[in-house]
Design brief:
Elements: H1 3-11, H2 16-22, H3 27-30, H4 33-46, H5 50-71, H6 73-79, H7 89-92, H8 100-106, E1 114-118, E2 126-130, H9 134-147, E3 156-160, E4 170-173, E5 178-181, H10 191-200, E6 203-208, H11 210-221, H12 226-233, E7 238-241, H13 248-258, E8 262-267, E9 274-277, E10 285-286, E11 291-296, E12 299-304, E13 315-325, E14 331-338, E15 344-346, E16 352-354, H14 355-360, E17 372-379, E18 382-388, H15 397-400, E19 412-418, E20 432-433, H16 435-439
Parallel strand pairs: 3-5, 3-6, 6-7, 7-8, 17-20, 18-19
Antiparallel strand pairs: 1-2, 4-5, 8-9, 9-10, 11-12, 12-13, 13-14, 15-16, 17-18
Helix pairs in contact: 4-9, 5-6, 11-13
């Protein structure tokens, strides 16, 4: 077993009294000098003028495009033999867009430091390679975002990101100096443990999917008195909203009822775009040091600047946006119109289970072979999984549900295997399906 993996496993069992001291180890020693380099780069260019940012973008686009055309078979075919020179953004915009379907074929030609399998935020599974510096780059930029709310890496936070802790409500993790809370347990029925967390530990931040944090506080609302509510909210300097687009009614509730502040960001597993909403108005500012974000006919597309193992250039994320550019043609910000949603299903006790936590917060073996995964629910406690394979897969009916990690979820699941996924009437791929979506899809008859 890899030494780093062994240390990570050991750290899962270190108590806070010991683990808190590991938080003082600088990230340049945990992730290497690349962490410091990217931290400095992010700080520098977030405060640079538009001309300097433009020059940086053109240099990075030239570098990744020319490398890809010269070294990557996929791009050699896509771009042709004539050498490409990017002198301005107009030159870059003449290059073709690439889609998830193309990336599925592209990955078969590729190799890299890390092969990542993801369910995708829309339920469309995807595999791709990341470079060895991906995590140093990711944490450098994430810490910049969190730092806008005063975060230091020695600060203790609560996280609620879909981790199933079995019968436990919470568990300390020394690797990230965090207390993980089990989103599959009703906080309202475990009040003594909840109060113990906030009374015993110096909590400063709360990170999680917006829908998970919203559910957590809704479950506590009628169970705590004003003194206990004050104990909790006085400790939380800010919520950090990850993965999901913050739904307005959830934000309003957390602000009005609990007086909680927050910051959110946009990112995806493919690591082409990372953007943050520092003003909490739904406008996301992309990091120019992370990748290049552009609006192509209302679709958010991204280009990875630093992943030379498997470059993604003008990659269509599938998220629909409105955006604004500056005078240099660089995107100042974008707003999500459609795409990522805080959908949930209900267990047999009426608890709301966020799909981001259930589908994307757990490891499901099905994502290694399925092309699409969708879900529907007509009554609480019962749900149907819709799984699509583009090619014939040697799998039996008995094996299907075993490829999902559905432990500790009070829901009875069944499934349907399709030859193609179900789309809405407008042609949009949806993770959570309605009865209307299902009834309008003739492919439902094409089951295994």
């Amino acid at each position: 077993m890899d030494l780093k993996l062994r240390l990570k496993i050991v750290a899962e069992y270190v108590p806070y009294s010991l683990g808190k001291w590991t938080s003082y180890i600088p990230y340049k020693y945990r992730l290497g000098s690349q962490y410091t380099d990217f931290s400095n780069l992010a700080r520098h260019y977030e405060h640079a003028g538009p001309e300097k940012r433009y020059t940086y973008i053109i240099e990075r686009l030239n570098r990744i495009v020319q490398y890809a055309q010269k070294n990557i078979p996929f791009y050699k075919i896509l771009y042709g033999p004539k050498p490409i020179m990017i002198n301005n953004l107009e030159d870059f915009e003449r290059l073709p867009i690439i889609t998830k379907s193309q990336v599925r074929e592209y990955v078969r030609q590729s190799t890299g430091a890390m092969l990542v399998n993801t369910g995708g935020t829309s339920g469309e599974p995807l595999s791709f390679y990341l470079d060895r510096n991906a995590w140093a780059r990711e944490w450098a930029h994430m810490h910049y975002i969190w730092g806008l709310r005063g975060y230091k890496h020695t600060d203790l936070m609560i996280t609620m990101l879909g981790k199933d802790l079995g019968d436990k409500l919470y568990k300390y993790n020394a690797v990230h100096n965090e207390i993980k809370i089990n989103p599959y347990k009703d906080a309202g029925t475990r009040l003594s443990e909840i109060k113990k967390i906030f009374d015993r530990y110096p909590i400063k931040y709360f990170q999680g999917y917006p829908s998970s944090i919203y559910n957590f506080f809704r479950e506590l609302e009628n169970e705590l008195d004003d003194i206990d509510k004050e104990l909790i909210t006085s400790k939380i300097k800010s919520c950090f909203f990850s993965s999901e687009y913050p739904i307005p009614y959830m934000i309003k509730y957390l602000r009005d009822v609990w007086s909680l502040k927050y910051i959110s960001w946009y990112g995806h597993s493919e690591m082409c775009i990372l953007a943050y909403d520092s003003e909490c108005n739904g406008r996301y500012k992309p990091f120019v040091t992370y990748g290049y974000a552009e609006d192509v006919d209302g679709v958010l597309c991204g280009t990875s600047f630093h992943n030379f193992d498997m470059p993604l250039i003008r990659y269509a994320t599938g998220d629909l946006i409105d955006s604004q550019k500056n005078n240099y043609g660089i995107m100042d910000y974008f707003q999500i119109k459609e795409g990522r949603e805080g959908d949930f299903i209900e267990d047999r006790f009426g608890r709301k289970i966020p799909l981001t936590a259930l589908i994307f917060g757990r490891h499901h073996e099905i994502f290694n072979i399925a092309d699409y995964v969708q879900i529907s629910q007509t009554k609480k406690g019962v749900a149907t999984l819709y799984i699509s394979f583009k090619k014939d897969i040697p799998i039996t009916n008995q094996e299907v549900l075993g490829l999902f990690n559905l432990k500790n979820v009070n829901i009875d699941f069944d499934y349907v295997i399709l030859k193609e996924p179900i789309y809405s009437k407008s042609g949009k791929f949806k993770l959570k399906l309605t009865e209307s979506d299902i009834q309008s899809h003739t492919g439902v008859k094409n089951i295994l």
